[in-house]
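sorry to bug you again but im stuck and you know this stuff better than me. theres a chain ive been looking at and ive put its sequence and its fold in token form underneath. id like you to explain what the token line says about the fold, in plain words if possible. anything you notice is useful, everything is just below.
___
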Amino acid sequence: MAATPATSKRVLIADPVDSTRQSLSHFLREKGLEVFEAGDGSKALAETLLRHPDILLLDLSITILNADRLVQILRSNPNTKEMPVFFFSDMEKSVSGFRPGIDEFIRKPYHEEEVLLRLQRSLFKDPLSEVLTGDSEISGNLSQIFLPDLWQMLSLNSKSGIIQIEGDPVSGSIYIEKGEIVSASAQNVVGEKALFRLLPLREGKFRFIPGKVGIRQTIYTPSQHVVLEGMRQFDEIQKMGKDRPKPGDSVILLDGARDVALAGGAVREILLLAEFCTRVEDIVNNCNLPDLAVYETLVSLRERNVLKIGKFEAKSTKSNFLPADDLARLRSRLEEKGSFSGGANGRIVLFLPDPDLLESVVMALGRYQEFEIDSVFFSLRRKEGAAVGMFGKIRISDDSALYLYVFPYLRSTSPLWYALAPDPVGIVAFLKDEVTSSLEGLMAISDYTRGVKARVVMAVMGKSFTNFGLGENTLRLFQNRIEKLGCVLKVQEMKQLSSEEIRETLVNIVQQYLEREGKS
């Protein structure tokens, strides 16, 4: 997996058991160390004098020239007397010539990762000694110190700080609190997705800055597990070979994509992104899922003829959201008001009874070329939580837009409504049968309507709504209250959250707004 750097350290393993010796040799070579082997004490002495290893891993059961005599000879030679020796044995025993602080004793059976950690601590003692014993900064080359190994050393000493990485092809930061990885960032991604991109890097530089980490936690998996999983996923991505889509490949949806999207999960999220992302790189970077899951799903959808992926010009199949003259009128009205950041911008607020509906709304809006998703909103959002905030926008011109906000039917979140979306162009309340019977939620929306002086409210409901008498009465009360505030309440029946019906809803909001503003 890892190439051996030109400046790698030399390790000699002296062990009479071939399988044990060869397994450890293979592991250490994979970690970038130069390894030599000897099956008995005589060969170990010859290899030491010939190869000049930086460290000797010596099993105490070595034969021909026993361990005590081998160490005595090495200590009498000025060229080898300073060389550290790691003694291995399957039982606790005193070792002749053992030097605390220089030599190590490792009980068999051992974990190879433990051996590596101790080797790194000994071999790279000079550049790492300050950070392992104090609070000084260190820096180094990724070709010499593998990031998982560096983390293990910092974890062993319960260090806190930031590992800054300038790598090829990605740079970023890993945040450590008392030895545990709590967050990571790389380019425009955070959390485990970012960490998995940084861990395999073998080219570039790193810098560790010790100190308390003041950052929001985005990684909750125990560090040992998340590091191993990150390396596993990297290996799986490499195994995909030529089957893995290239970052610059174009992507377009084929017929039947919407039916497949109903499956949910990774497929749904990637098809959602494919509505408005035309390159593999954009889908990978904007998807919440780890890169391996994204690539595997892209390959699966390509094989099922749901996505076309490759080198071709991806022509836009998206339609216009509003006619050009309506866009010009909207821009003019918003410029006159100038109430949002001093420019020709406005807001439309959507109230959703179910957070899962947001994906359907976004997928529907993705059919229109003026719509842009807010990738930060979706990368930070917890899927199991309520959707709150600005999730996208509809471009009006190069410097103006309608910003789209989403909130739940929860009065407890109403302070956020006023703070994030004052003075909206209009409000859309999506109603479900079980939610429309909750008068409290609808009354909270009417209070918000009055507080922000909204002019247009659209209530969207399913065809089955009128079959519920309690829901029908609730809607009537809601409608009466909205109209008493001097607002226009339009009721739209919707069979499903299709792009056409979503567009119709928002276009109605805009047109009602233009009509009301024209009369005022």
Notes: The longest strand covers residues 389-397. Residues 499-519 form the longest helix (21 residues).
